[in-house]
Amino acid sequence: MTPAARISAAIEILDAMLDGAHAEKAISAWARRSRFAGSKDRAALRDHVFGVLRCWRSFAALGGAGTGRGLMIGALRAQGVDPTEFFTGEGHAPEPLTAAELAAGSAPTGAARLDIPEWVWPLFEASLGEAAEDAALALQSRAPVMLRVNLRQGSLAQAIAGLADEGVTAHPHDIAATALHVTEGERKISGSACYNDGFVELQDGSSQAAMAGLEIAPGARVMDYCAGGGGKVLALAARADGIFFAHDTAPQRMKDLPVRAERAGVRVTIVETGRLRDEGPFDLVLCDAPCSGSGTWRRTPESKWALTPERLDELTKIQRQILQDAAPLVAPGGVLVYATCSVFNVENQDSIRHFLSKNADWQLVTESRFDISDGGDGFFIAELSKKS
Ligand SMILES: C[S@@+](CC[C@H](N)C(=O)[O-])C[C@H]1O[C@@H](n2cnc3c(N)ncnc32)[C@H](O)[C@@H]1O
């Protein structure tokens, strides 16, 4: 496909999304009916669609319309490219710009310039203060691909060399001692021996750094209460000699965890909700709670536009309930850890304050925030302990 034909295809997909289709589904449907497209075409198309998703408001302003055409016109203008170079109508290129399209378009301002939904911007500012603008700007670009090296299997240098043999270029990242930043060959990671043997795992740098900061004594019993795919408990098990457990109210989310644990050479016992009290108590209970994901919106840009005030409210209620349910599982002298990949105070500090206001026998021990502009995702982590 020519670059112009790829732009036509992106317009088609964006229009399908405007009609209500999810990005992944719209891309898959396009790929099914476009058998002529090769893997490079599909990759380029994804880049177009996800690039627009990250910058929807600013591209719509620059392109003069929130339609597939308007967004792609805006995307080209944002890169300093004259859209008439591609909108020629020749071959499979999009039709030439109309006089109205040529005249339309203006520089975005305010929250539109930062590609943040209007109602969300005050939350950003209130939560991040002076860092808010940098965080929003960072969300306009692709997230770096980061790997966590499983130091049980070898050193960073050995992982870098092993990946290089398989066409993946990676460099240490100072966000965490286990972190590698992949700069080339990211599509080869999932087929590489390093990945399939559990030497490296895909994991954002902030999550790695947050997990590295948790103290785990030898033999400590550690429960990942909201385990999902198990990324956090695997990071903990890779560096500490504890006894590890995982739980999730949606157990199907943990379906890959046993295989991932096996290939990493660690043991994680899955605990059903009804057996939590029997298996407990635990010296550390980690609640990596469901959240808006606002710290990860460059990876999942559709969520940026899908969040509503009602959903945010619902999430904060779930977070508060999780802390309340998990606290009794903590052993005397143990730690309750609360984490989110949100940058909003309402999901972070406010959830902690709410818990402390209802549980006077608990206290805050530490609280840390990782900013998107530091290189990893936005992340929050707090440790709580029972007053002695
Ligand atoms: C942010 S994700 C966890 C991500 C995971 N820790 C990882 O590193 O891959 C939140 C998880 O919490 C689970 N969850 C939702 N409500 C819960 C509850 N009340 N108790 C425990 N887990 C819950 C969800 O099913 C989801 O898998």
TrEMBL record:
Residues 135-388 form the SAM-dependent MTase RsmB/NOP-type domain. GO terms for molecular function: RNA binding; RNA methyltransferase activity. SUPFAM superfamilies: S-adenosyl-L-methionine-dependent methyltransferases. Keywords: Methyltransferase, RNA-binding, S-adenosyl-L-methionine, Transferase. S-adenosyl-L-methionine binds at residues 248, 288. It holds the Pfam family RsmF-B_ferredox. Transmembrane segments: none annotated. The active site is at residue 341. It is an enzyme of class 2 (transferase). Belongs to the class I-like SAM-binding methyltransferase superfamily. RsmB/NOP family. This is Ribosomal RNA small subunit methyltransferase B. It comes from Roseovarius gaetbuli.
